[in-house]
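Morning F.,

Quick status update on the modeling queue. The single chain you submitted on Monday has been processed. Sequence for confirmation:
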Amino acid sequence: MDAFDVPLDDERTQLDAFIEEYRSAMDAALDRLTEEQARRQLVPSATTLLGLLKHVTWMQRVWFEECVGGTSRRELGLVQSPDESFRLSDDDTVASVTEAHRQACATTRTAIANLPLDTVVTGHRTGPRTLRWVYLQVLRELAHHCGHADILREQVLAD
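Structure tokens below.
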């Protein structure tokens, strides 16, 4: 089932479906790529396909585990800034980053499963937010980065 097959009156199910669709698209951006292709730098910002997936993993952990769950980045073992979250180490591989992304998604699903969208969460550094707001923020970021991934993948495969 994709986001267009969800009943229109079920907002939570629709939001979940859209997020899952973008999560899958981010994973698929690395399908059948070599390690070199996944790390290839094609833009001045040093954004790579593997770095994008590493960043969206970090981003989802920040919003769902820090903002919603109330656990600090330091306690979660996360880098502090978005720019740092794109940086790849020598140990980062397509398999390891993909697995980290899938684990983060699974953790998120469990953590928010029983929370209503109107739940007020207090882990955001600028103040309280509703879970609905967090969903929309994550959806916005996933859509944004999926667009980047589409373009980078097209460039990588054209070489």
